[in-house]
Design goal:
mainly beta; 23 strands; elongated
């Protein structure tokens, strides 16, 4: 049966020769006891950088789910040697039903008596060190069922991504633009608790007199005092949450373009943003009226025309008085 479970995992993953697949298996005959360690790394695994959300992935095949208890697998990540719970328990009898053909001395198990196959992933844990270990225990201590095999244990970086944008992107000096941060979850939409960042605003850009700070992030806290040159944020992403936002109004008294990108950031558990730019412009000044110089040639012509018209009016009036 243990060989059949390993073969079932090979078939599940699309291997060309699944019967040659290797897996770790447990086919119980006595009560092993709850909480026993089934898998643990001897050495830690280096991460590309510290302060990342890390999850664990695993393929599980379980037998006898139709008549007995299921394995209840629990992952822990070892952060500086201390175990941190990664997600909830994995029920090995949750997945897709797969026939197990006869192998060796074991007969075929088909239909409802086949194996249950599934790929499972733990929740993401914020790991602050640059290396991590894995531990997996089984909370089911029974020998009645609890028959399974596992393969393909993976460490997965599930750190959300931070983006930022300004609206409007062009504003007059002394006006305000809303700086919006968006924290976007990874595809599995697992919970991500405890991320944080500080945005050091570029020189000349400050938090507006009315910051109007707000956030849709669970447990989100925004620190952005009027006139401050940095914005501090902490928060979470809930399970199944795609994204959340943080908004703060900013301003400048100096006309310039202000680029705010990854070099402005300090963060934990987040992928850095791209550069976003806001431009503050000097207020426009209406052109001054241009006086007409009386000694300009066209100015003299205009003056001459006015005097001629007045003289003509005077002669007409004088003739009318004589006629009387």
């Amino acid at each position: 049966m243990t060989q059949q479970l390993a073969q079932a995992l090979g078939t599940f993953k699309g291997q060309a020769t699944p019967a040659t697949n290797f897996a770790v298996s447990a086919y119980t005959s006595n009560n092993p006891g709850a909480g026993r360690v089934e898998f643990e790394t001897v050495n830690t695994i280096a991460l590309p950088s510290p302060s990342r959300f890390i999850a664990v992935g695993i393929d599980v095949a379980a037998a006898n789910c139709y008549r007995a208890s299921a394995p209840q697998l629990q992952f822990y990540l070892l952060d500086a040697g201390s175990p941190v719970t990664a997600g909830g328990q994995i029920d090995g009898c949750q997945g897709s039903l797969l026939d197990m053909p006869a192998l060796g001395n074991a007969g075929a198990s088909t239909g409802s008596q086949g194996a249950i196959l599934g790929t499972h992933q733990s929740g993401g844990v914020l790991i602050n060190t640059a290396a991590v270990g894995i531990r997996m225990t089984n909370a089911n201590g029974s020998g009645g069922g609890n028959d399974h095999a596992f393969d393909n244990i993976q460490l997965l970086d599930v750190s959300p991504t931070l983006d930022k944008s300004f609206s409007p992107v062009t504003q007059a000096v002394g006006g305000t633009s809303v700086l919006t941060f968006t924290v976007t979850n990874t595809a599995e939409l697992g919970a991500k608790a405890g991320w944080s960042f500080t945005d050091h605003l570029p020189a000349g850009l400050v938090v507006a007199a009315t910051p109007a700070a707000s956030t849709s992030c669970p447990s989100g806290v925004v620190t952005a005092a009027a006139g401050a040159t940095a914005i501090d944020v902490t928060g979470n992403l809930a399970d199944s949450m795609e994204s959340c936002t943080i908004s703060v109004s900013v301003t400048s008294n100096t006309a310039a373009a202000y680029a705010n990108g990854p070099d402005n950031m300090e963060s934990a558990g987040l992928n850095p943003p791209q550069v976003s730019t806001v431009t503050f412009t000097a207020p426009s000044t209406p052109p001054a009226a241009t006086p007409v110089p009386v000694n300009a040639p066209w100015g003299l012509l205009l003056l001459s025309g006015i005097l001629s018209a007045l003289a003509g009016a005077f002669r007409v009036g004088h003739k009318r008085r004589q006629a009387r």
